[in-house]
């Protein structure tokens, strides 16, 4: 299989991975379709892209150790952990996208990833207590402050939108309300995603663990298999809008299906790059903090897409923008501090 040996190539891959992980939600915006339906195409894209990677880069390489060899060599529990990680990750992503459909991608991912990053770092430290406690403490404080600013931003933005509707005569009431369903969904989604990390570590257990391409495939398989069950819930009990019949998926246009599929391909590429860098010595020994920061920095790019391209803060006032800027800056500071504070365990 093909692994990264050059530090320079690892940095380039990390940037590409950041672009992928920070851009795939745009597919849901572009499709202009219910996320419950578009997500099916996305999961299919994740799976097929993982198969393509497994039988290309995962099969050809300098060590003659192929994707098939890796799967046959791995323990059954490790394979099961990889699939379970995909199922857990998929639930977290679906909840995040559900939250995005209500409050927009900017706040959904900033708040959701903020909580998810905090949970992931805590679990990693409890499993292997290595790192700089001072940096980790300051990073955790910045993360909490970022989440708080994000929540305030949501409230202010909701009020701005409510007042705008009142001015336009679209509201029958003069009492503005703030709805928190999207925030709750995004928050739970971020924390659920973090629970996939311990399963990924157990799947990569030394000696009988799986490599990055096999793990990408297992995660994708877990996502595809679990999507059927999750979709039944979201179709019958939607977070927004009327319930949908499964046959509604067949009524989508080719453009909607294609956009969802491409979003999944981009997500799969981002996940694969992250797992490849985790398995590469260059990614661990020379720039662990850089790769952690880029991996967790995807919400900042997503927020930029939502703010600049999708105009999600169209009716916001200056105070709302100020709190959003504070949330983004604090999140950026948090992931830099946490990435610098976390050190890989000794070999």
Q: Outline the low-pLDDT stretches.
A: none
Class by SSE composition: mainly alpha
Mean pLDDT: 92
Shape: globular
What does the main sheet amount to? none
Q: Span between N and C termini? A: 22 Å
Tally of contiguous helical segments: 15
SSE string, helices as H and strands as E: HHHHHHHHHHHHHHH
Q: Total strand count, please?
A: 0
How much of the sequence is in beta strands? Answer: under 5%
Helix percent reads: over 70%
Work out the count of structural domains: 1
Radius of gyration: 20 Å
Task: Explain what the structure shows.
Helices cover 74% and strands 0% of the residues. By secondary structure, it is an all-alpha fold. The chain has one domain (7-341). Helix 1 packs across helix 14 (298-309), helix 5 (76-103) runs antiparallel to helix 6 and helix 6 packs parallel to helix 15 (318-341). The model has no long low-confidence stretch (mean pLDDT 92).
Core attributes:
347 residues; mainly alpha; 15 helices
Write a concise synopsis of the structure shown.
This protein has 347 residues and is mainly alpha-helical. The chain contains 15 helices and no strands.
How do the helices and strands line up, and which of them pair or pack?
Layout: H1 7-21, H2 26-31, H3 35-54, H4 67-73, H5 76-103, H6 105-127, H7 133-167, H8 181-194, H9 196-203, H10 212-236, H11 254-279, H12 281-285, H13 288-296, H14 298-309, H15 318-341
């Amino acid at each position: 299989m093909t692994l990264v040996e050059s530090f320079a190539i690892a940095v380039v891959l990390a940037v590409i991975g950041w672009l992928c992980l920070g851009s795939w939600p745009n597919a849901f915006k572009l499709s202009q379709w219910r996320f419950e339906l578009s997500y099916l195409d996305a999961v299919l894209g994740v799976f097929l892209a993982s198969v393509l990677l497994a039988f290309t880069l995962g099969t050809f390489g300098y060590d003659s150790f192929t994707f098939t060899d890796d799967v046959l060599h791995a323990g059954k529990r490790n394979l099961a952990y990889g699939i379970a990680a995909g199922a857990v990750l998929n639930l977290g992503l679906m909840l995040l996208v559900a939250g995005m459909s209500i409050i927009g991608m900017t706040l959904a991912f900033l708040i959701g990833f903020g909580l998810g990053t905090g949970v992931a770092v805590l679990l990693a430290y409890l499993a292997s207590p290595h790192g700089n406690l001072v940096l980790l403490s300051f990073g955790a404080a910045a993360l909490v402050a970022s989440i708080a600013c994000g929540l305030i931003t949501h409230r202010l933005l909701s009020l701005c939108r409510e007042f705008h509707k009142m001015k336009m005569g679209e509201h029958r009431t003069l009492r503005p309300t703030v709805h928190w369903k999207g925030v709750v969904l995004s928050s739970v989604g971020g924390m659920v995603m973090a629970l996939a990390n311990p399963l990924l570590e157990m799947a990569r257990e030394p000696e009988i663990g799986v490599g990055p391409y096999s793990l990408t495939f297992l995660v994708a398989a877990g996502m595809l298999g679990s999507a059927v069950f999750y979709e039944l819930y979201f179709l019958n009990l939607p977070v927004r809008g009327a319930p949908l019949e499964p046959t509604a998926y067949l009524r989508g246009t080719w453009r909607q299906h294609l956009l969802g599929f491409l979003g999944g391909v981009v997500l799969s590429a981002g996940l694969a790059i992250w797992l490849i860098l985790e398995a590469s010595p260059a990614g661990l020994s020379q720039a662990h903090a850089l790769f952690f920061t880029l991996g967790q920095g995807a919400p900042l790019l997503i927020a930029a897409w939502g703010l600049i391209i999708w105009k999600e803060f169209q009716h916001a006032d200056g105070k709302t923008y100020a709190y959003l800027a504070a949330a983004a800056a604090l999140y950026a500071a948090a992931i830099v501090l946490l990435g610098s504070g976390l050190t890989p365990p000794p070999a």
